Recover the amino acids of this structure.
């Protein structure tokens, strides 16, 4: 497949598939004697796009530069902004010919989306406030049109082929392992995305309002949001008793804002996310949250499942390890643990499985993980 740059002008229908999409945001001249900067931007994009496949460039100007449908124009721009993998803000502001007042509003709506780049000539006035927020949110900036185009295409890289409703998932979500895992399972069931809208994103966490064609039911379900975060590793540390009910389980207590417990804390198994494989993450999280350093060979795998399948796509990799009396005594007498500089404070506590159940000490997901590991050999 040859590289292709397809320009879609205002009110024109986007194509059904592409590898990447860019929206050219910024001031639009209204007077016929004031030239637009967008044709030059398109040419610079054409010169740089060498990837096999299609790059769509949304240009919010009519081919004949007429504006006859204000509401339709606004709706088209909103739709295509959400379709774009990168929104290129180029703001050659001129207070007489291109004051860029609408651009200020668009920038305020998209500056923290994670998919914008910002550029402006050094002499362009009234951009200091916009540049302030670009710096605050880590937005790539440039002082030339070629520089801002390059910044956008660098982030797009090779793009990724998407068709139909898949186009509505921007690359910054599409490329995450969590999205890929979720969508591959949906496709394995012959389900297809018919639409999506990013409703929330922060760091490695994201939320998508999705419309999914459910093949087995012959319908499209469009009233749910899929949330996700990186998969976690969770570890059951236990001192065996005569029965599972008498087995002592190590928990960590930590203040977490969503907790609706009497003490405002969550009580859970040591665990969390990490950059390595699930086993190495499990060992690292145990050391971080309890102070206990384990040989990886001591951990037994119990599989992987979603934690809350009606809400979040992320999964938990469950491990367990039998510990000695000395190790149990050692972790009980230490704390706080965690990444203290980042606000994470964990305190070790221990209770029998029966005590955990009677006191409703843990949530249902944690209770299930404990039961799965304790009863695995029985």
């Amino acid at each position: 497949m040859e590289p292709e740059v397809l320009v879609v002008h205002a009110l024109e229908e986007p194509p059904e598939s592409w590898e990447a999409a860019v929206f050219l945001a910024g001031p639009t001249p209204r007077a016929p004697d004031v030239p637009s900067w967008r044709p030059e931007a398109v040419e610079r994009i054409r010169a740089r796009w060498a990837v096999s496949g299609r790059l769509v460039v949304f240009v919010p100007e009519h081919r004949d530069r007429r504006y006859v449908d204000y509401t339709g124009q606004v709706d088209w721009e909103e739709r295509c902004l959400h379709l774009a993998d990168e929104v290129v803000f180029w703001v050659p502001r001129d207070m007489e010919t291109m004051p860029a007042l609408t651009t200020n509003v668009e920038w305020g709506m998209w500056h923290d989306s994670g998919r914008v780049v910002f550029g402006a000539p050094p002499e362009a006035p009234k951009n200091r406030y916009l540049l302030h927020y670009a710096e605050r949110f880590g937005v790539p900036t440039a002082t030339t049109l070629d520089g801002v185009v390059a910044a956008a295409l660098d982030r797009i890289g090779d793009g990724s082929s998407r068709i139909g409703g898949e186009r509505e998932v921007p690359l910054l979500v599409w490329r995450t392992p969590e999205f890929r895992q979720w969508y591959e399972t949906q496709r394995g069931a012959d389900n297809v995305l018919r639409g999506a809208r990013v409703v929330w994103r922060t760091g490695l966490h994201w939320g998508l309002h999705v419309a999914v064609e459910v093949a087995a039911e012959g319908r499209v379900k469009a009233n749910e949001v899929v949330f996700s975060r990186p998969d976690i590793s969770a570890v059951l540390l236990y001192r065996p008793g005569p029965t599972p009910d008498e087995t002592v389980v190590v928990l960590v207590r930590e203040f977490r804002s969503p907790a609706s417990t009497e003490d405002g804390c969550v009580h859970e198994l040591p665990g969390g996310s990490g950059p390595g494989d699930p086993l190495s993450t499990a060992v690292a999280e145990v050391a971080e949250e309890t102070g206990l350093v384990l040989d990886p060979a001591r951990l037994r795998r119990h599989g992987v499942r979603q934690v809350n399948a009606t809400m979040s796509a992320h999964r938990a990799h469950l491990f367990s390890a039998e510990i000695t009396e000395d190790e149990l005594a050692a972790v009980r007498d230490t704390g706080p643990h965690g990444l203290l500089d980042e606000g994470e404070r964990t305190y070790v506590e221990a209770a029998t499985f029966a005590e955990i159940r009677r006191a409703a000490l843990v949530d249902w997901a944690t209770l299930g993980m404990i039961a799965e590991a304790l009863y695995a050999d029985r």
